[in-house]
Specification:
By secondary structure, this protein is an alpha+beta fold. The chain has four helices and seven strands. α2 crosses α3 and α3 packs across α4.
């Protein structure tokens, strides 16, 4: 096969011009979402600090890292971190962090909602610890003692607790916290009102 050297230069220039034009004329105003916006990064830093500084007898060493963008829609941008994936597709323990955008009918723009979701989670102590960390992290100046009070109010800790059929919510300091439990599915959530 023979290459015509006179044709190579114009074709190369045409390709370069096309790339430059495509990037210059691309969709203006649409930006690639940042890997971790400030509010989400702040939440993760606070979560990790609370987990690290917890008393030695509590198993709170549940650090959040390597958040993954899972949705960037019209109403919110959502990130996720999986603490644990089980042997089957339906087994997991994860945290989801979502930033509301303008036009979101359920949340104020710029507010954060967080949830810890589990299905068939094997370690009850770490599961409950993650619920406490979620609450303590969301509350301004929140502590693990504050989280324990809210968990008791939600009815998820204490004597004779049945997590397999429960749905409760409570409000504290401008935040709503809730828990849903059904069979082996558990969801602890919180968001700013």
């Amino acid at each position: 096969m023979r290459i015509n050297k006179r044709a190579v230069v114009p074709i190369g220039v045409a390709i370069i011009v096309a790339i430059v034009l495509a990037s210059a004329l691309g969709s203006p105003g649409q930006e690639t979402p940042t890997p971790e916006p400030d509010l989400i990064a702040s939440f993760v830093n606070e979560w990790n600090a609370l987990a690290e500084d917890s008393p030695a007898d509590l198993n709170l060493n549940i650090a959040v890292s390597r958040l993954r963008l899972v949705a960037d829609g019209d109403r919110a941008t959502t990130y996720e971190f999986r603490f644990w994936d089980g042997a089957s597709r339906g087994e997991y323990h994860k945290i989801s962090l979502s930033l509301a955008k303008e036009g979101n009918p359920h949340r104020k723009a710029g507010t954060l909602s967080a949830s810890v979701e589990s299905n068939k989670a094997p370690d009850t102590e770490r599961l409950m610890a993650s619920w406490g960390l979620l609450i303590a992290t969301m509350l301004p100046g929140g502590t693990l003692a504050d989280a324990s009070d809210i968990l008791r109010e939600l009815g998820v800790i204490g004597p004779d607790v049945n997590l397999e059929n429960i749905w409760r919510e409570t409000t504290r300091e401008g935040f709503r916290f809730g828990f849903e439990g059904f069979q082996s599915f558990f969801l602890m959530y919180g968001y700013e009102l």
